Please model this.
Amino acid sequence: MPDSVEWEVVVVDNNSTDGTRKTVEEIARKWPGRFRYVYELNQGLSHARNAGVREAAGSVIAFTDDDVSISPDWLQNLTSHLHSGEWAAAGGRIFPVWAKPVPNWMSIYDAHTMGPFGVFDFGEVSGPLSRPAYGGNMAFHRSVFEKYGLFRTDLGRSGTNLHGREDTELGERLLAAGEKLRYEPQAAVYHPNPADRMTKRFVLRWWFWFGYGEIVQDGLPNDTRWVVGGVPLYLLKRMVRWALQWIVTLSPPKRFACIRNVSFLAGIAFACHRFQRLTEAEAATDLQ
Model:
């Protein structure tokens, strides 16, 4: 960062069980005024990010994750255009670092299959973003949180679940309000993907919870007449269709894409069923 720019790193500890606090405090003593430790008791990624927003002193707030590596000029490249007032937020590239060769069922050219691995790459030309950035590499002007609120705490990972969307939901909120998001390709981070994530089970679990999060974010669908156990009939038909296509498809990447779609729709269906039951239970309570 240029000498004229003040910056700090706020490390939010969300109930970790390792040596995070000791490590951060040692670094803070080595570089006074640059690093700060914050403890957030409420479990969940959204709670942690919101704690970081509340504690941060800067007019621009950048986010990254605990497992990535960043390029030396990452912070400057990501945030330099956010001081002009033209842009509300910015996002940079996220490159995957694979722990082993990519299996034949996992196409690196399929953005949907790459979603669980945090890949975010739209080339080398900067400019407006028409979709939200990912949480591992994004920055916002502080005024965004003052005007539109914090990250939704009913979204975002908590513990070992894969319930996400808290980062993209905020970006979608800004886009819907007419705010401008900027793509900064020179702001790069490198996201490790261990071998236990490069499995069909992990990707299918991720897409199940992504589908579940769609209902949490947007609510139950209201464009359907026929439901079974709270699940719209058209969802069940789509699941059957993709399952049948999976049976007859030979290409490993295309075959996996079919079952991935089934898992995504299953997450939506599970959320519909669950929230419909909760709605009925609340209605029954109100009548008593």
In short: The CA atoms of residues 102 and 232 lie 36 Å apart.
